[in-house]
Amino acid sequence: HCYLMDFSEKDIITYDNFFTSGDFKSISDILSRPMWKWGHGSLPSDHPNRPEFVTPFWKMELSSEYFFNNYLFNIIQEKTNQEFGISRCYCNGHTYGTSGIFHEDWPDIFGRTVLLYANDIWKQEWGGKTVFNINGKYIYKEFVPNSIVIFPGIIPHRAEPTTRLFSGLRKTVAWKLILKGS
C-alpha cells in the first residue's frame, strides 16, 4: 500500500481514562454476558493473505447494541473532535495461547479503528499489547484499562498474546469507522 509511507507513530493516538467510570462499568457488565462466540480470527477464512494456521479467539458482536453504536460512538466523536460514519462494532477476547496476526482493518486511508481496552484491571506482566507495523518499525501500545487507541485502519496491527500469568479474557472493543467527508 503506497499510503502506508504517509503514516508514523504520531498517527496512533492514545486517550487514557476515556469513558466515565459509570460508562466503563456498563461496558464491563455488557461484556460479561454469555454472548461470546469462539472461532474469530484477524483475517476472514477466505482472505488471500491468511496463513494456513491461525489461532482462533473469542468475539462478541456489538453492531446492534445502541449503547455502543450510538451513545459511546457519540462520545468518541465528541472527545476526538472528529466526525465518523460507523461500519461495525464488536469485542475481541483473547485467552492465553491465542493472538492476532498482522492485518489491516481498512483498504484505504479513510478508515479508522478505535480500540478500547475493556478489562477492569490489567498488569503489565500479563502481556497483551497491541503491536503496529509501520514500514517495518514495530510500535507497541500497552493494554491500559479504559484507554482507547485510535489509528488509521490501513496500518497493519495485531494483538500480542497474553502471558501464562493471565488466566482471564483480554477484551478489546473495536469500532470500525470512516472519516466523514472522505
Molecular structure report:
There is one protein chain. The chain is α+β, with helices and mostly antiparallel strands and 182 residues long. Helix content is 14%, strand content 32%. Strand 6 and strand 7 (137-141) form a beta hairpin. The longest helix has 15 residues, at 66-80. It is globular, with a radius of gyration of 15 Å.
What structural keywords apply?
seven-stranded antiparallel beta sheet; 182 residues; 14% helix; alpha+beta; 2 helices; three-stranded antiparallel beta sheet
Proportion of beta-strand residues? 25-35%
Order of helices and strands: EHEEHEEEEEEE
In quaternary terms, these chains amount to single chain
Structural class assignment:
alpha+beta
Q: CA-to-CA gap between the ends? A: 18 Å
Number of helices: 2
**What Rg, in angstroms, do the CA atoms define?**
15 Å
Number of strands: 10
Taking the sheet with the most strands, its summary is: 7 strands, antiparallel
Give the strand order of the largest sheet, numbering strands 1, 2, ... along the chain.
Answer: 1-8-5-10-4-3-2
Helix content: 10-25%
Mean pLDDT: 90
Low-confidence sequence ranges: none
Shape: globular
